[in-house]
Amino acid sequence: MIVIRPSWRPWAAAVALLLLCALLLLPAAGLPIGAPAWWPTPVVVIDPGHGGYDPGVETDSGISEKDITLQISQALAASLRTRGYTVLLTRTDDRDYALPGQRGREAKRTDLDARIALAEAHRAVAFISIHCNSSPEATRGGAETFFNPSLAGSKALAQAIQTEVRKIPGMSLREAHDGSAYYLLQHLTMPAVIVEAGYLLIPSDRAKLVNSAYQRQVADAVATGLTHFLNNWAGAS
Ligand SMILES: [Zn+2]
């Protein structure tokens, strides 16, 4: 007679499956700060403002905000990757996400929704949108960071970034500001900020914004601020 004994293998397989499920499900609750080395690296989403049909600010000399935001974003991505982060950019070339036939506000909303969806799908630990300020009335330049006070972590992240940005030599000193009117900051659920890297319509700032050395300085300052934020912010708003 053949006796069929219960094998250990199904149990081992079940335990392995449970462990795998736990591993896959845990990040859904948010990546822990100070996680062990084997933990999946946190995903940071960088959003180069504008693109495609939408150039952002344009100067008389033919400079488009969308080009500068992409250059700074790529420098920021490089800086963050050397620090061990997984970085996703909402665009890596000159494009937008509006649908054919859409115009104006509708096109802008579809474009922004696609960028938001990317960050949400990857459960990003932070979202940083890079822009250039366009105020024609401003007489003083300087980079500044905007947050939504209703969004957990947004203000702390903005202040951490602004603290570092202010250390750039020659920087006009500005504070982090309430940016709760921005669509992006209203609709994202992770700590999110908008960094205006300078005033494109102020000549002294414009000269800096097109300069790759300044672009890297801003990128490194933002990366340092984000790192401090992620090391210190444990989920409290
Ligand atoms: Zn912009």
From TrEMBL:
Keyword Hydrolase: yes
Pfam families assigned: Amidase_3
GO annotations of cellular component type: outer membrane-bounded periplasmic space
Keywords: Hydrolase
MurNAc-LAA domain mapped to chain residues: 116-227
GO BP: peptidoglycan catabolic process
InterPro entries, per the entry: MurNAc-LAA_cat, N-acetylmuramoyl_amidase_3
Recorded GO MF terms: N-acetylmuramoyl-L-alanine amidase activity
PANTHER family: N-ACETYLMURAMOYL-L-ALANINE AMIDASE, N-ACETYLMURAMOYL-L-ALANINE AMIDASE AMIC
Protein name per Swiss-Prot or TrEMBL: Cell wall hydrolase/autolysin
Record organism: Kyrpidia tusciae (strain DSM 2912 / NBRC 15312 / T2) (Bacillus tusciae)
Organismal lineage: Bacteria, Bacillati, Bacillota, Bacilli, Bacillales
